[in-house]
Design goal:
By secondary structure, this protein is of the alpha/beta class. Helix 5 (about 100-115) links the parallel strand 1 (about 90-95) and strand 2 (about 120-125). It has helices at about 5-15, 20-30, 35-45, 50-65, 100-115, 130, 155-160, 205-220, 255-265, 280-290, 300-310, 320-330, 340-350, 360-375; strands spanning about 90-95, 120-125, 140-145, 170-175, 190-195, 240, 270-275, 295, 315, 330-335, 355. It is about 40% helix and about 15% strand. Strands 8-7-6-9-10-11 form a six-stranded parallel beta sheet, with helices on both faces. It has a five-stranded parallel beta sheet with strand order 3-2-1-4-5. The termini are far apart.
């Protein structure tokens, strides 16, 4: 669906130009508000410009006033100071970032910090089950369901935020969509700790920034990303591959690249396992690219994450798999394309070999990285 009015609103916001209530109304009408979220809100965040945080907050306060005015009483005060650190809370709630990659790169750092700071507390992962499954084998983590329609209409996402209220315990918000990036209160201010991932130490990888924030806020100096999915019963693979792009076609390379990539990996002689993704489109792409002798994974992501952790090399686009591999210390070859600026590229790059997907010799670079990996 066209998003002409959302595009115009984004341009006005980035240029600090005047925009009217009518401009906002037109943007909100595009695809039930989905265009405003994907075109405007996501871009404001993806630019990782600290000055745009207030731009987003001003805009979204008006959005909430128009779409769900009853939620205005739930808005968090502007520039709220972090509360005093409790000594021994019984419960700690860590909110999901909703997307799998961000839950590995950011949310897991907060889970690790909470476990280390409060060893006797019950730690809850608050979010969809699909994300919780990434930590299901960790006995310290309990799941509290908080459904969120990632592709739903704007009003549905706001209602999901409105439905969440945590009556007790410490709440750690890693810039979650559940709170609309820290805007909607889900607990008393004295128990709420907010990590603004769009503004805090934007020169670092996002996991490093989260770890620094955890050290500054909770006094935990060694928090790091991790995963703990239930073990896979399938035989391990030498190389794991994901061609998923999270519905963002700008991240992938067209033509015969994916088939040629899998051919290069097959030439190593290692066993190769390719994830078929979370959509019919991704599954069809894998089917077109797959070669005889290569295995595929079809199903939930957590079992595939378990396979990544057991592999000797992970290869894929900018997606959740690269963050799983990075957290597990598995060598990574990431083909990174579709980033909006250098800050985004640096912020979300995993630890490993990162190849810019818009380079003219991407496949040659991938082949060279494969050779280097198997020579180690």
């Amino acid at each position: 669906m066209e998003s002409i009015y959302s595009q115009k609103l984004l341009i006005a916001l980035l240029r600090n130009e005047h925009w009217s209530a009518e401009d906002l109304e037109r943007a909100l009408a595009e695809d039930e508000g989905r265009a405003l979220l994907s075109v405007v809100v996501e871009r404001l965040g993806d630019l990782f410009d600290p000055e745009l945080c207030s731009v987003y907050e001003d805009l979204f306060r008006k959005v909430i006033g128009r779409v769900a005015p009853d939620l205005l009483v739930r808005l968090r005060p502007r520039q709220a100071k972090p509360p005093a650190l409790p000594s021994a809370p019984k419960r700690v709630y860590v909110l999901s970032r909703i997307t799998l990659g961000a839950d590995v790169a950011v949310t897991s750092v907060m889970l690790d910090a909470a476990k280390k700071r409060w060893p006797d507390a019950e730690i809850f992962f608050v979010g969809p089950r699909k994300s919780y499954e990434m930590f299901a084998a960790d006995s310290r983590i309990t799941h509290r369901e908080a459904p969120y329609a990632r592709s739903g209409a704007l009003v549905d996402r706001l209602r999901a935020s409105a439905s969440l209220h945590l009556e007790d315990g410490v709440v750690i918000d890693p810039d979650s969509r559940l709170t609309q990036l820290g805007l909607i209160s889900v607990c008393d201010a004295g128990r709420y700790f907010f990590f603004n991932s769009r503004a805090y130490k934007v020169g670092l990888r996002i996991s490093e920034s989260a770890a620094d924030w955890a050290a500054e806020t909770f006094g935990v100096n060694d928090a790091r990303p991790y995963v703990a999915p239930l073990p896979s019963c399938d035989p391990p693979a030498g190389i794991t591959v994901s061609l998923g792009v999270g519905e963002n076609e700008a991240k992938r390379i067209g033509g015969d690249f994916e088939r040629e990539l899998l051919s290069a990996l097959a030439e190593t002689g290692a066993s190769v396992l390719v994830d078929k993704g979370g959509s019919a489109e991704e599954s069809a792409r894998v089917e077109r690219a797959i070669l005889p002798g290569l295995r595929t994974h079809d199903g939930a992501f957590a079992p595939f994450a378990s396979q990544i952790a057991r592999s000797n090399l992970y290869v894929g686009y900018d997606s959740a798999g690269q963050h799983v591999a990075s957290a597990c210390g598995v060598p990574v070859i990431s083909i990174f394309k579709g980033y909006v600026n250098r800050r985004f590229f640096e912020r979300w790059s995993p630890i490993g070999t990162v190849i810019r997907g818009d380079a003219p010799d991407v496949l040659d670079q991938v082949r060279a990285a494969i050779t280097c990996t198997f020579r180690r």
